[in-house]
Write a structure and sequence with these properties.
The protein has 2 domains: 2-45 and 97-204, Ribosomal protein L4/L1 (Ribosomal Protein L4, Chain: A), CATH 3.40.1370.10; 50-90, no CATH class. 33% of the residues lie in helices and 14% in strands. It has helices spanning 20-23, 29-42, 102-118, 135-144, 160-166, 182-187, 195-204; strands at 2-6, 12-17, 122-125, 150-153, 172-175, 190-194. A 6-stranded mixed sheet has the order 2-1-3-6-4-5. Strand 1 (2-6) and strand 2 form a beta hairpin. The radius of gyration is 27 Å and the shape is elongated.
């Protein structure tokens, strides 16, 4: 499939051939859903922790006699049903990561790219080279391109001036080609790829 190339000044700069096996698939929501769950679960800190009855501070002495008081048969006062006692079956530090085969992860990225292409939400930029790191100037250029919520993917590294100018703009994310991921693609309205990013992605899927 062919796509138009545009410059930062919203001028045409030719066309580019996009691989159908990467950008021409019929998007599968189930695969995209699995990948988003995988990413969000993997980035959870998992540092939540509570104290159980063996960890709370308190005496180990039996609270009262076993018989004759008319009260419950109870050991010490660190039982979970008492105020100040330990938590029963509370959370402990752990990894929330789930497994997802490498081939499914690669396929999910293809489907995310295809979803943007089929919805006409894919923009191909000639390059992100900017003369200076001016946020105001970049905002004007992005408004010409109609980009208010976008993920911009550059080549092996992000152009320095462009990266500095874009980092304070809300709803605009800039990543190198190695950082492209399904969650960031889907959370923004538009996906913007430079020619260098297109080449890097095609090499990645070979």
């Amino acid at each position: 499939m062919k796509a138009d190339i545009t410059t930062l000044d919203a001028k045409k700069a030719g066309t580019i051939e996009l691989a159908d096996e990467v950008y021409g698939l019929k998007p599968r929501p189930d695969i995209l859903h699995r990948m988003v769950r995988y990413q969000l679960a993997k980035r959870q800190a998992g540092t939540h922790s509570v104290q159980d009855r063996s960890e709370v501070t308190g005496t180990q002495a039996k609270a009262h006699n076993q018989k004759g008081t008319g009260r419950a048969r109870r050991g010490n006062n660190k039982a979970p049903q008492l105020r100040g006692g330990g938590k029963a079956f509370g959370p402990k530090p752990r990894s929330h990561a789930i497994d997802l085969p490498k081939k499914v992860r690669a396929l999910a990225l293809k489907h995310a790219l295809s979803a943007k292409a089929s919805a006409n939400e894919l923009v191909i930029l000639d390059s992100t080279d900017a003369k200076d790191a001016k946020t105001k100037a970049l905002l004007g250029q992005l408004s010409k391109l109609g980009l208010t919520s976008a993920l911009i993917i550059d080549g092996a590294s992000v152009a320095e001036n462009f990266g500095k100018a874009a980092r304070n703009i809300p709803n605009i994310d800039v990543l190198p080609s190695a950082g492209i991921n399904v969650y960031d693609i889907l959370r923004r309205e538009k996906l913007v790829l430079t020619k260098a990013a297109v080449e890097a992605l095609e090499d990645r899927f070979k």
